[in-house]
Amino acid sequence: MSNQSVQTVSTSNDKIKVVLAIIVAVVGVIGFYYLSDKPALVRAGALVAGLAFAVLILWTSSTGREFLNFAKEAVRETKKVVWPTRREASQITGIVFAFVLVMAVFLWGTDKTLEFLLYDVILGIRK
């Protein structure tokens, strides 16, 4: 027996739902900017309503459910990240700045050496 995974093919109905969800999300964003003369609460409500309705439409399609489950898993994995302390972040930043400084000096020195060799020694065209 082989352990082959079965992949379901989304129907055209699912594709229509995904396109409709994208359109609804875009309409929510457009509504946010179109209502620029309205209070911020109304604008935010239009945006949230459009995005929430788009998520509901996506949830009814298999492709959308797979994507939303993937997004939930991504958020769950992000919560597992161990962030560095302030001291560790400062040390790493200092090391990066020091490395950039050393590389800048090295590249400047290489450039000046090659400039000297090419223009003064080989071509002899510098005054």
Automatic annotation (TrEMBL):
InterPro entries: SecE_bac, SecE_sf, Translocase_SecE/Sec61-g. GO terms for biological process: intracellular protein transmembrane transport; protein secretion; protein targeting; protein transport by the Sec complex. The keyword Transmembrane applies. Keywords: Cell membrane, Membrane, Protein transport, Translocation, Transmembrane, Transmembrane helix, Transport. One of its GO terms (cellular component) is plasma membrane. It is found in: Membrane. Its main location: membrane. The chain crosses the membrane at residues 18-35, 41-59, 89-109. Gene3D superfamilies: Preprotein translocase secy subunit. One of its GO terms (molecular function) is protein transmembrane transporter activity. Belongs to the SecE/SEC61-gamma family. Essential subunit of the Sec protein translocation channel SecYEG. Clamps together the 2 halves of SecY. May contact the channel plug during translocation. Component of the Sec protein translocase complex. Heterotrimer consisting of SecY, SecE and SecG subunits. The heterotrimers can form oligomers, although 1 heterotrimer is thought to be able to translocate proteins. Interacts with the ribosome. Interacts with SecDF, and other proteins may be involved. Interacts with SecA. This is Protein translocase subunit SecE. It comes from Duganella guangzhouensis. The lineage of its organism: Bacteria, Pseudomonadati, Pseudomonadota, Betaproteobacteria, Burkholderiales.
